[in-house]
TrEMBL record, chain A:
Species, as recorded: Neorhizobium lilium
Signal peptide residues on this chain, from the entry's feature table: none
Keyword ATP-binding among record annotations: yes
Protein name (record): ABC transporter ATP-binding protein
Domain ABC transporter: 5-246
Coiled coil feature spans: none
InterPro entries tied to this protein: AAA+_ATPase, ABC_AA/LPS_Transport, ABC_transporter-like_ATP-bd, ABC_transporter-like_CS, BCA_ABC_TP_C, P-loop_NTPase
PANTHER family in UniProt: ABC TRANSPORTER ATP-BINDING PROTEIN, CONSERVED COMPONENT OF ABC TRANSPORTER FOR NATURAL AMINO ACIDS-RELATED
Source species taxonomy: Bacteria, Pseudomonadati, Pseudomonadota, Alphaproteobacteria, Hyphomicrobiales
Transport among keywords: yes
Keyword tags: ATP-binding, Nucleotide-binding, Transport
Domain of life: Bacteria
SMART domains for the chain: AAA
GO molecular function: ATP binding; ATP hydrolysis activity
Family of the protein in this entry: Belongs to the ABC transporter superfamily.
Length: 254, 334
């Protein structure tokens, strides 16, 4: 299958520190990929390079065969490359319902309309209600985001990404900060995502990674040291060294 | 689907729904307008000026209150509307008041586009400095182009025609006042529709988190620039109203002082709400007028003390604090 998302030889330095070292990666529609690695391995930098929040020193990012390396973040989103944030980024004075309605209207290119209230648009409201219900947020739909618990904000963060109906979804630690009692909701939400959507997830929760991912990529000191099946990752000597050995060792094997 | 909890907790109250629909606002504008007409019949010129400045303060609220842009140069948009309407009347013989208002609207929108293009290139403090630079440039341009603007003498002899050939602009300013109140009501309805629309919601999002806006695939800059043009149109209408009612346009309509005072009125009333903008204007200008008459030497001291009190004890402004108090009262179990 042709890749929907492809990264070629991506490089990024902060001063003398190489944070992304010749990373290449491709995903087909329907991929469930987990990107893991020790702290400081460059996972979030990788996401920022791919989404356009940082400019790479070298390399290319392609989306459905189109080179998006020079595009602004918003342009990439409109082409189907959507991310969620490790630390929740929401509008604190707006309600969950407003968030999702706005995301849906934006996806449909109607967020610039200067008349009418979103609640008068039946299809938008139906889709909003379905998403709210799916993530257990329906009862909170009229509360301001700053009035709801952080775990619920995390769920809304995922719902926002879902509302944009992406082709490629980058989830930066979707379960971080979600209470144990609600991680099942996050997992159910991830399971319910369309099967042809390519998902790349960063997480430290290995249980979640092994349940979710069909493929694992390990990043250490900015370099891809493993790309393969989840069942093989713990057997790999370089991965063991990266996690158990010192960073210096991980760097020298790179 | 989950059954919703107690309606009173989740559904907006009746008062809030009426406020959202703008009916309360229009009613309040008409009521306040009528009261002003009856209570201060000899001071209609002042009241008309309050209406004109209220339009300026509303226009600042659009970019500052709703979108989070800090500006001390917004009188440029007001002055552009005033000079636009005045020049149209004096140099081009466009003396129909509605046509003059339309020219003011367009001139204001154009000034909004120009200053938006400049100001929106920066953020935070640099943005504020750019806005000050813009107002000084507009001021200086109007000063130098004295052939068109009358320079520091002002542009005088603006003679608007009678309204539909029926209502003369009389010495007491009755026609101008009624026209101003009608304009304010119309602008308020349109702005209420705007701020409730998807675009208004997007603008509030821009104020709160531009990175999230980009992550949704929207462009903050495009939203802000569109809002600046709309804001310019509103300020331009205010400027035109001022030109029509006073029949003269001076450089003070393009001044840093007016920009700063209008921002103060907005903060006094409360940012991010159309009601706050209008309440702040009325309170500040009536206060200013009363105090300066009572004590011409120390009135500014009192205004300063009032502002400090509001910022310290009611940081959300008069309207914002009243709403917060009402909310708290409503939520307290009976």
């Amino acid at each position: 299958m042709t890749p929907v998302f492809e990264v070629q030889n991506l490089n990024k330095k902060f001063g003398g520190l190489v944070v992304t070292n010749d990373v290449s990666l491709s995903m087909a529609p329907g991929d469930r990929l987990a990107l893991i690695g020790p702290n400081g391995a460059g996972k979030t930098t990788f996401i920022n390079l791919v989404t356009g929040n940082l400019a790479p020193d070298a390399g290319h990012v392609q989306l459905s065969g189109e080179d998006v390396t020079r595009m602004r973040p918003a342009q990439r989103v409109r082409r189907g490359l959507v991310r969620s944030f490790q630390v929740t980024r929401l509008f604190h004075d707006m309600t969950p319902e407003e968030h999702l309605a706005l995301a849906i209207l934006q996806r449909e290119g109607r967020s610039g309309q200067m008349f009418g209230h979103y609640s008068g648009r039946v299809r938008v409201m139906d889709e909003t209600a379905a998403l709210l219900d799916q993530l257990g947020l329906f009862d909170l739909r009229h509360l301001k985001v700053r009035e709801i618990a952080y775990g619920q904000q995390r769920l809304l963060e995922i719902a926002m990404a879902m509302a944009l109906k992406p082709k490629v979804l980058l989830l930066d630690e979707p379960a971080a900060g979600v209470p144990q009692s609600e991680t099942a909701l996050v997992e159910a939400a991830l399971d319910s995502l369309p099967s042809d959507l390519a998902i790349l997830m960063i997480d430290h929760d290995m249980d979640l990674v092994f349940r979710f991912a069909k493929r694992v990529v390990v990043l250490a000191a900015g370099t891809v040291i493993f790309d393969g099946l989840p069942e093989d990752v713990t057997k790999d000597s370089r991965v063991r060294e990266a996690y158990l050995g010192s960073y210096a060792d991980a760097g020298s094997t790179a | 689907m989950a059954v919703s909890m107690d309606q009173s907790l989740t559904a907006p109250s009746l008062v809030k729904r009426l406020a959202d629909s703008g009916l309360i606002g229009v009613f309040a504008i008409v009521l306040a307008g009528a009261m002003g007409y009856l209570l201060m019949p000899n001071n209609l010129a002042l009241l008309t000026q309050i209406v004109a400045v209220a339009l300026l303060v509303l226009s600042i609220d659009l970019v500052t209150g709703y979108c989070g842009v800090a500006t001390l140069g917004h009188a440029a948009l007001f002055g552009a509307g005033a000079y636009g309407a005045g020049i149209a009347a004096v140099h081009f013989g466009i003396t129909d008041p509605v046509a003059m208002t339309a020219v003011g609207l367009l001139a204001g929108a154009l000034a909004g586009l120009v200053s938006g293009l400049v100001i929106l290139r920066a953020h935070g403090l640099a943005q504020l400095v750019l806005s000050i630079a813009v107002i000084h440039l507009f001021h200086e341009a109007a000063n130098k182009a004295s052939g068109w603007t009358g320079g520091s003498d002002g542009l005088s002899a603006i003679m608007p025609n009678a309204f539909f050939g029926l209502f003369e602009f009389d010495l007491w300013g009755r026609t101008a006042y009624v026209y101003g109140v009608v304009l304010l009501g119309l602008v308020f309805i349109l702005l209420q529709i705007l701020v409730r629309s998807p675009f208004g919601m997007l603008a509030r999002g821009v104020r709160q988190d531009q990175i999230r806006i980009a992550a949704m695939g929207a462009s903050s800059h495009a939203v802000l620039l569109r809002m600046y043009v709309i804001s310019g149109a509103v300020a331009g209408i205010g400027g035109a109203l001022s030109a029509i009612s006073t029949q003269v346009v001076g450089l003070d309509s393009l001044s840093f002082t007016l920009s700063a005072e209008a921002l103060v009125m907005l903060v006094l009333g409360g940012t991010g709400s159309l009601y706050g903008a209008m309440i702040g204007t009325v309170v500040f200008m009536l206060f200013e007028d009363t105090l300066s008459a009572a004590n011409p030497f120390h009135w500014l001291t009192v205004v300063g003390a009032l502002l400090i009190a509001v910022v310290l004890f009611a940081p959300k402004g008069l309207y914002g604090t009243a709403v917060a108090l009402a909310d708290r009262f409503r939520r307290r179990p009976a």
